[in-house]
Design goal:
Blueprint: H1 16-20, H2 22-54, H3 57-76, H4 81-87, H5 93-125, H6 129-156, H7 160-183, H8 189-209, H9 225-259, H10 261-274, H11 276-296, H12 300-327, H13 329-337, H14 345-362, H15 364-371, H16 374-395, H17 399-423, H18 430-457, H19 464-485, H20 489-510
Amino acid sequence: MVRKLPIDNFQYWESDVLRSDLKQRSLHSGLITFGAQPVKVLIGVSTTAILARLLTPADFGLVAMLLPLLAIVDSVSNLGLETATVQREGMDHQQASAVFWISLKINVLIIAAMVLVAPLLARFYEEQSLTAMAIVMAIGVASVCLSFQHKSLLKRQMQFGVLTSIEVVSLVVGAGAAIAVAWMGWGYWALVLQLVVPQIVQGVAYWLFCGWRPTKYVKPSQADTNVRAMLSYGLNLSGFRLITRIGMKLDQVLIGYLSGASALGLYSMAYQWAYFPFNQIYPALFDVAVSSLSRAASDPQQYRNYCRQSLTLMFGFCMPAMALLFVSARDFMLLLLGSQWLVAVPIFQVLSVAVFIGSLYRVTKWIYVSVGHTQRQLQWGLIHTPVMITAVAIGSHWGALGVAIGYATGISLLTYPSVAFCLQLSPLTMGDFMSTFLRPATASIASGFLLFLSRLMLTAPGVLILSLILNLVIFGVLYIGIYVLLPGGLNEIKSLYLELKNLLAARKKKQ
């Protein structure tokens, strides 16, 4: 059973205890998040496989029409203060309360605006059902907004066992609700509940498992310099999120407007599964990485070491998964979604390339956030968004596949400049960064190419799932073999093994 910390407990604000055992806590947190990934993958894959057969592409397209609105709301809700709470070195109970009440006022306005915009979106897409869908989704957003500070405090103290348990339980409840509603023939409402129910469950759970409660309202004029600094940090972060998500979500808006719900449903499903390997690892590691790196930011060498370890771990798992799915795209989509979705395979493969390359750009957020350079992050957003809008707008002349190609082209053009811009004022050097992805990228591409050749030469088993398992085994053997043969690969694996061995030994001593 998880023990709740009492109100005003110093452990919510004290960082010295964390720094004294930061390496062990970081490894332990990383193991917890990775250990939960197979469970979350199983939930996600099985739920999608069922819903894809009970619902139509148009049902998925209707929900996808609202995703850009949700992304914008998510960008500005809480004003980025949830991340500021995790990153901030010094903080106390009164300051946390001030942050909570300030964000609450803003969130009320944001949610009200979301409800008011809903009819306009319905008119824009000529789909009247979007109004009611957006209003129900606003309930989930409200739940997230009310519990953000409690979740942030749990992250700040690296309580990732609690956070992971809450997330897994909420996914199970949401999946059950979605499948039940889809089975009853309620169509797109199943997908709405799949989004909203986990948000409500998580919101309630964060309040239950975090003992902190806000004190009375503190006027912004009375907030101290620390709170004002957090507001500045959060505003820059929110500005970056808003600007970049406009550029990153325009592809879906254009397809929905020009081609309708069915085309958008196919595109959004391809988009979702192209990002699936990345999204299973990056968000989970983001919380661990930002919590650890923020505590290590005062020591440049320690920061570099932790950053290299975190990035190597993420690329080492994400990149091979993306390469495998690219080569096995048709079999994967057929098994997971059924034959009605096969037309989305080329879109899926193009977007997979975009995610593979763009993963280098996405992780710069770890660095910006952990060292407090959100103003510089916002500056890059002003460069990033016009390029993405132009690339996607040009691609839209050739339908959904053209949009995907435009999206991938924009990401490819921006990736190296975005990394170089980020690292200019960072403790991490370009050499450090390149060392984290060169081996996994090389091994992934080479293994994918060899798997493609083997598929041409070998006769695949007649059973689809056996064919995919065979592809996984062949790719896995190739990837590990090539990784070990690359310079420094074997030493890196040995180093990771020793880290895990030391972690287990330290835990046995504590027991």
